[in-house]
Amino acid sequence: MDEDENPPEQSPSADTGQSDLFDRVREALEYDLEASGFSQSTYRGKEPEPPERLGALNLETLGDLYDTYLSFYCYTSNLLCRAVNYLGVTDAKVKIAKARALLSIAGNKSYSNAELRDAYVTLDPEVVQTTADYTYFRSSYDAQEERRRKLSKILERIFREMAFRHGGGIPPMHSQEGGSFDPRQAQNSLGRTGGFKPVRDRDR
Q1: Any residues with CB less than 8 A from the CB of 36 and at least 6 apart, and which?
Q2: How far apart are CA 77 and CA 176, in angstroms?
Q3: Which pTM does this prediction carry?
């Protein structure tokens, strides 16, 4: 049997130097994020369920509810910011692991078939580990993004109710056609003509 046809051993685990390099990249990304003014929100506890009837709540309660959901929106956005850094690093690790596994069977006639090469690379221990890491952060990012969309809808509904109570025109909820609700845009609309004005003590 040709020596090249002997099944090769699985590729070795990631080189420590390369692993450390990616860790330094991640740390640099986090440092730069903090240096840009990023402030990590603290854990807010369990997210409250939206009330069944917003119309039954008084304006002060609506304002408190809006602030509560806004804090969760900001917290979720911060989680996504950090997840993006991990996604980029783990994606790069997966690509390098796959390349290393593929190079380990280069020229081996036992893996001349593309499907066999794909199977070998997919089952390589280093590829499995890095893919698992990437899957975790990808799934976490998608889940938090879906959560933020839900919070966006809740904030939009509360803000519209508050604007309706004051009898003014409802500020635009979208920064662009088809976009999602931006709480910062809504807050900037407070106090403007036709928008919700801050509640004074004597109005409560």
Answers
A1: none
A2: 19
A3: 0.67
